[in-house]
Fold this sequence. Notes:
The protein has 267 residues and is mainly alpha-helical. The protein has helices at 3-16, 30-55, 57-61, 74-77, 83-112, 119-145, 152-180, 186-219, 224-244, 246-249; strands at 23-29, 254-259. Helix 6 packs antiparallel against helix 7 (152-180). It is globular.
Amino acid sequence: MTAKDAVVKSADESEDNPLENMLLFFNLSIRKLAFVGVSLPLITLLTCLATAYVFQYDDVHETHCRVYNVIPSISAITGVTPQTYMWRIAVAFHVGPRMVIAQVYYNYFINQVSKAADKSTCYILINLCYWLNLIEIAAICGVTYISNRENYPVHEKIFILFMLSSLLYMIVMIKTFNKVHKTMTDRQRLSYTIKKILFTVCITSTFTLIIYFIKHRFYCHDLAFTWFALSEYVLAVSNMAFHFTITLDFPHEQLIVAKNFPTLKMD
């Protein structure tokens, strides 16, 4: 074999295996990313609740009605120091993966559109799902970094925005997920079912939250704020669990940073 033939053969082998010259710099499974992204705010929230309840009981139970209360709200336990710093750090590390995951879902759904029957409706749902997700992430930042103690009117409005965008995102996500999958695997069907159950829990918690907020704010009923806070915790945990279903949607996929990685063309 001549040197020229060897070069040609080497080039052919490189074309057959485009990953041969790839340099891998970073590799992280989406499953691990989701686990860290969800567990960090959940653990921090529980830590804030426990420490504030034990060491700052009077501060976190203080309300404008000054009625008997058992469970402090999320805004109360994350509005006192040092818990406020812990919560802000947790959210800062949470929103990064959320932004990545929003883009992953968007690209995945776009790739699945070719298998769907009604493509125009799918594109509308996919874009709506993506932007509602981003609005929800922005609202999380807003309610975190503008506390109720610093600016209650703004905090309250951003919290309402978070609830609306979160619930709308969930229902659009469920609709999109069903629309782009002509047929579902067992894992996808499980993810779809869990998403619907968690959405039902979230919408129920939202209604009870609103009812008890009105009872507390305008009628100052005893324990009304406790039921409001309990609904808020159920809503927050269910929301985290909803986003954690990405581990069922992308159980083996990886996030990769590499050089000479072959470019994949989206359908």
